[in-house]
Design a protein that fits this description.
The complex is a heterodimer of chains A (363) and B (402). Chain A is of the alpha/beta class. Chain A has 14 helices and ten strands. Chain B folds into three domains: 32 residues, no CATH class; 100 residues, no CATH class; 220 residues, Orthogonal Bundle (MetI-like fold). Helices cover 70% and strands 1% of the residues of chain B. The chains are: A alpha/beta (363), B mainly alpha (402).
């Protein structure tokens, strides 16, 4: 009888523990990120330092972006993710749907020279539901081994089938392609979204895409472009600059990036609404958005800090010793002609344009 | 104590039912409940109705040809401000935006600025903040998004939308996508089923006819790819079929094609069919093999002794007996291909987009679960229709999986 009682209390105790999110969960934090070389850069760049300084253990999980898992957790009321690494567009969608905690009033650390965070961050990157941490670029990349003679140097060359015959890789989504199409058609970056807001501009973009449609291989995951370049499936492709950097520096591929006409976007950190370790998550967000942490990431992968104070501090790659500055999207040499992604613009039209883009694809 | 023991000793029907309970509970939790929630979501969305109840009440009496009166503006102004405070305004904005694209930002912007407006004429003030409030379409969209129960998602999932006159119309031509994708999905599934049958039938026949030890080896050859991750198999097809891939290299090497006219085997329909056929082949071979093994070889000998040549014997005696396996295999492969999307997405190129890719988009990216649910329900109905046609023609009781 006594034994039985002990057994029952043990089970009861564990159940209670699960229900009340027990003691031993207190000093941990679940951080969800994109995996691969980027997650590794974050771990080496600042996760380890965070655990050392605060004693909070980080449980790292991978996901492929998107909001489905977060919404499922929030809707079901059983949230087990705390901090999520996300892109600017899902950040906005998820914020609208109430999937993220409000973090707009977090007391973020100042720059090393004392400049307050509000002035140190790039404009608009301390958002209601997330704090921007890095700048990444969608660029044109090519493999010189697949091209004879003159090499492409501009975005126009990407659309020039006569000068550079061969297949191209593009992401299977309207985002980024419509902007590239207009810039490739000679529209200056600052007029792209204005023009895309009109039906004529939209048609012009689709016409430009039409001109190369038969020669495009559409990619869906970030790992595909470097693979297609290495295999000789395509001669040029749109790609995320960090993936190409990884291929260039870690895998020693001869790939080259055309920075002309690249698209800039930000990655951000956010806290899932109802996160089980909210206080730790806030501590983590403050730490991860410090200049030091951003520079730590940038010294492992070519994503630039989103604070003005971070840019000059980026140095050599932590493993290979490669100078990281020329790989940054924000490096002056790379910043001659580029376009910032307009998340607000996309959030209003993405559904409509995805349907239109898919209809266009299947014609 | 005594009563417990006697109960245990009595054989009871409760035991088998009890043993099945975990399965029932499992199916209920992992299948019926999520499916039910999805079906509900496809037609029920109360978010806007909860956030703007008074405005929607007023809009009920609005004749939608002119701008609503100042009362409506005043009501929506106060409701927008309060929904900004409880953070439900984003939900309103995304839902109205789905009906009228390009109106998402008007809500947050207006609510933010309204808090500072002291003007009594809110109508003018709101139009001054954003002239989209002058657009009757926006008001129609708000009214439409305010319906708790809606057929909108179902209409949309077959490329239709409610028309202004209360009827139903097709969406504009460059937005029509879902019907194309259903047809393509069915077409790809049918083609894959036929290919699987043509390839799988001889293989199953071979496995069923050889000695047991050979059959084991052959079965393992069929099963090993089956045990390999889907992603790995699909990616290996990419390696084999691509322009600089193994197949093309071999063809160039033996001189069948020249180096600059390599065959396009992947990123098109050919690639989709090859990879999907390979991935789904075991689902055809296994039921076929199970049925064929049970066909006694004596029957073919009897047919021969009665004067049938081998072809006649096969067509009239063997094939009809293998039909339960054929139908089981075809049904399995067809229904599985209807829901496939990773393989076509990776090797399919422009034409590789199937209906499941749009479901994935609306679940993952746009968070429009209502529309995703509506498309899924239509797909599910399609599967049931196939099942009933099958039942009518073949009879589900004749289905044999082994």
């Amino acid at each position: 009888m006594r034994k039985n009682f002990q057994f029952r209390s043990l089970i009861g105790g564990s159940l209670l523990c699960i229900a009340a999110n027990c003691v031993w969960a207190e000093e941990t934090l679940t951080v969800v990120s994109f995996g691969g070389s980027y997650a590794k850069a974050c771990v080496d760049g600042y996760h380890k330092a965070f655990t050392e300084e605060t004693g909070i253990k980080i449980k790292l999980e991978d996901y492929n972006g998107g909001l489905a898992q977060i919404r499922a957790q929030v809707d079901a009321g059983s949230v087990h993710w705390d901090v999520v690494d996300t892109e600017s567009s899902p950040l906005l969608t998820g914020c609208d749907e109430g999937l993220f905690e409000y973090v707009g009033d977090l007391d973020l650390p100042p720059a090393p020279d004392g400049t307050p965070a509000s002035e140190d961050f790039f404009d608009g990157q301390i958002q209601d539901c997330g704090i921007g941490t890095l700048v990444f670029a969608t660029v044109i990349a090519y493999n010189p081994e697949n091209i004879d003679g003159e090499m492409p140097t501009t975005l126009q060359d990407f659309f020039d089938l006569e000068k550079f015959p061969g297949r191209r890789g593009m992401r299977r989504s309207p985002a980024s392609n419509l902007e590239f199409a207009l810039m490739g058609d000679g529209v200056p970056p600052d007029q792209v979204f204005e023009l895309l807001s009109t039906e004529e501009g939209m048609q012009r973009a689709f016409r430009k895409l039409d001109s190369i449609k038969e020669h495009v291989i559409w990619w869906e995951t970030g790992a595909q472009p470097p693979q297609m370049l290495a295999d000789g499936e395509v001669i040029m492709t749109t790609a995320w600059n960090g993936r190409i950097f990884n291929a260039q520096v870690i895998e020693e591929q001869p790939f080259k990036i055309i920075w002309d006409g690249h698209l800039r976007d930000v990655g951000a950190l956010t806290i899932v609404a109802g996160a089980p370790n909210l206080e730790n998550a806030k501590k983590f967000l403050k730490f991860a958005t410090s200049t030091r942490a951003m520079v730590g990431v940038a010294n492992h992968i070519s994503y630039a800090p989103l604070r003005h104070s971070g840019l000059p501090l980026v140095g050599k790659h932590a493993v290979t010793g490669e100078d990281m500055q020329p790989h940054m999207p924000t490096y002056p040499e790379n910043s001659k002609n580029f376009l910032w992604n307009d998340v607000e613009w996309w959030s209003e039209r993405e559904d409509e344009l995805t349907e239109r883009f898919n209809a266009w694809l299947s014609r | 104590m005594a009563s417990t023991r006697s109960q245990n000793q009595e054989p009871s029907r409760l035991v088998p039912i009890g043993l099945a309970l975990p399965l029932v509970a499992f199916v209920l939790v992992t299948f019926v409940i999520p499916l039910g929630t999805m079906v509900v979501q496809s037609a029920y969305d109360p978010q806007v109705a909860q956030a703007l109840p008074k405005t929607l009440d007023l809009l009920r009496d609005w004749n939608d040809s002119a701008l609503p009166s100042s009362d409506v503006f005043e009501t929506i102004a106060s409701e927008l401000i309060s929904s900004r405070e409880d953070r439900s305004i984003g939900k309103v904005a995304t839902r109205v935006n789905r009906i009228k694209s390009g109106s998402r930002s008007v809500f947050a912007k207006t609510a933010r600025r309204l808090e500072r407006v002291e003007d009594t004429d809110l109508k003018t003030a709101m139009i001054e903040i954003d002239d989209r409030w002058e657009d009757i379409e926006l008001w129609r969209a708000i009214r439409s998004a305010g319906q708790k129960f809606t057929a909108r998602h179902y209409l949309r999932s077959v490329d239709l939308e409610p028309a202004q006159d209360g009827g139903i119309q097709q969406v504009s031509e460059d937005q029509r996508i879902y019907n194309t994708l259903y047809f393509r999905t069915v077409y790809v599934s049918l083609a894959v089923t036929v290919l699987c049958f043509l390839i799988g039938y001889p293989i199953a026949y071979a496995i069923a006819s050889v000695s047991d030890s050979w059959a084991k080896i052959l079965l393992v050859i069929v099963l090993v790819p089956f045990w390999t991750s889907l992603l790995v198999r699909t990616t290996s097809w990419l390696v084999l079929l691509q322009n600089q891939g193994v197949v093309n290299d071999v063809l160039v090497w033996i001189g069948l094609v020249s180096d600059d006219s390599r065959l396009a085997l992947v990123h098109n329909m050919t690639g989709t069919l090859i990879a999907m056929t390979h991935v789904l082949l075991p689902f055809m071979i296994l039921p076929l093999y199970a049925v064929m093994r049970s066909i006694p070889p004596d029957y073919m000998r009897a047919a021969a002794s009665l004067g049938a040549n081998p072809i006649e014997g096969f067509v009239k005696v063997y094939f009809p007996q293998s039909l339960p396996g054929v139908s089981a295999g075809c049904l399995l492969v067809f229904i599985l291909s209807l829901g496939y999307y990773i393989t076509p997405a990776l090797v399919g190129g422009t034409k590789g987009q199937l209906i499941s890719n749009m479901i994935a988009y609306h679940i993952q990216t746009s968070l429009n679960w209502g529309l995703a649910a509506a498309i899924s329900v239509i797909l599910l109905i399609g599967v049931f229709v196939c099942y009933f046609i099958f039942d009518r023609w073949v009879g589900i009781d004749k289905l044999k999986l082994g």
